[in-house]
Amino acid sequence: MKIKSMFERGTVFSFEIFPPKKTSPIETVYNTLEKLGDLNPDFISVTYGAAGSTNKVSTCEIASAIKNKYGVVPAAHLPCINYTKEEILQILDEFKASGIENILALRGDINPDIPPKKDFRYASELIEFIKANGDFDIAGACYPEGHIECDNIIDDIHNLKKKVDAGAEHLISQLFFDNSCFYSFLEKIRIAGINVPVEAGIMPVVNKNQIERMVSLCGASLPSKFTKMMQRYEHSPEAIRDAGIAYAIDQIVDLVSNGADGIHIYTMNNPYVARRISEAVESLIRCRK
Ligand code: FAD
Question: Ligand 1, residues 59, 88, 107: which to mutate, most atoms within 8 A of Cβ?
Fold first, then answer.
C-alpha cells in the first residue's frame, strides 16, 4: 500500500526504526518489530546509513520483513550522496523485488571521510530519478527550524519546494520540541505553495545524553519547559524517561488537536516507549472529524 493514500483516511501514525549496527545480528531488530507491529502503526520506516554504518541489505531485508512477517506497511529510507545512478537503480530493483513501495528519498549527511559521489547532489535529484525509474510512493524530509547547513529558512523552503515539484508526495519532519516552530513552518510552506501532507517528527527523549547528541546534530531549539524537565530529572533514569514520554504525548495531543496530517515517532528501537505513547494517543489519532 502506498502511504500517500493513508492521509485521505485521517491522521497518519508511523514509527521509525534503524537497522542494527553491522556488528550486531539482524535478529535484534526483529524482537523490536514483534512489539511495534502489535501497536498498529500505519507504517514503519527503516533508516539507511549513508555513511556505511548500516547497509542496504539490512534496510531492504528489514523493510521486507515488516511487510511479510509483521503485516505492516514498510517505507525504506534511501540516502543518495554516496551512490552512482547505476547503484541507485540496483537498489530500486531490490526494493521492487522485495515488495517495497514506499521510499523516503534523502541526500544523506556528508561524511568528511567519504567523498560524495557526484551523481546526486540533492534529494530533489534523487526524487526526480526515482520518479523516472519506478512506481514508488516518494516522501521527502523537511526541517521546521531549517536544515542545519542552510543559512535561512526561506532558502531552505525554496529548496523544499524543489523536492515536492520533483515528485515528493508527502513529507516527514525533523524532530522538534517546540510545536510553535512546526506551526510557523507549516504556515510558511503553505504560502510557498507546498501543499502535500506533512508528518510531524516526534522524538521521545528518555535520557540526557540522547538529547545532547540530537541537538548537536540537528540544532532543534529547546523550550524552557523542556530544559527545566531535563534538569530536574537528569539523575533519575526512570523519572527522566517518564517525563520524556509525557512531554512527547503532550506535543502529540496538541499537534493532533491542531489538525496535523501525521505523527512520525522516532522510536530509537525502544518498543516500551512506543507502546506507552501509542496507548496514550491512540483514541485521538483514530478519532475522525
Ligand atoms: P536535501 O533536501 O538535499 O537538502 C540538503 C541541504 O541542501 C539543505 O540545506 C537544503 O536547503 C540544500 N539544498 C537542497 N536543494 C538545493 C539546491 N537545489 N540548491 C542549493 N541548496 C539546496 N540520513 C541518512 O543518512 N539516513 C536516513 O535514513 C535518514 N533518515 C532521515 C529521516 C528524516 C525524517 C529526516 C528529517 C532526516 C533523515 N536523515 C537520514 C538525515 C538527512 O539525510 C540529513 O538531514 C541530510 O543532511 C539532508 O538530507 P535531505 O534529504 O533533507 O537533503
Answer: 107
What digits encode the pLDDT tens for the residues 189-226?
A: 999 999 999 999 999 998 888 888 888 888 899 999 99
Query: 0.90 exceeded by the pTM?
Result: yes
pLDDT tens readout for residues 120-172: 999 999 999 999 999 999 999 999 999 999 999 999 999 999 999 999 999 99
Residue 89's φ and ψ, nearest 5 degrees, are -60, -40
Tell me which residue has its CA closest to atom 51 in ligand 1. Answer: 106
Higher-confidence residue of 275 and 215: namely: 275
Q: How far apart are CA 237 and CA 280, in angstroms?
A: 21
Would you tell me how many other CB atoms lie within 10 Å of the CB of residue 178?
17
Closest approach atom of ligand 1 to CA 150: 9
Q: Which residues contact 81 (CB under 8 A, 6 or more apart)?
A: 50, 107, 108, 110, 116, 117, 120, 121
**CA 106 – ligand 1 centroid, Å:** 5
Using alpha carbons only, what angle is made at residue 257 by residues 256 and 260, rounded to the nearest 5 degrees?
Answer: 40
Over the Cα atoms of the chain, what is R_g?
18
Instruction: Say whether 16 is catalytic.
Output: yes
Between the alpha carbon of residue 34 and those of residues 1, 28, 39, 172, 275, the distances in Å are 20, 10, 10, 24, 12
Question: What is the rounded CA–CA span in Å between residue 262 and residue 15?
Answer: 11
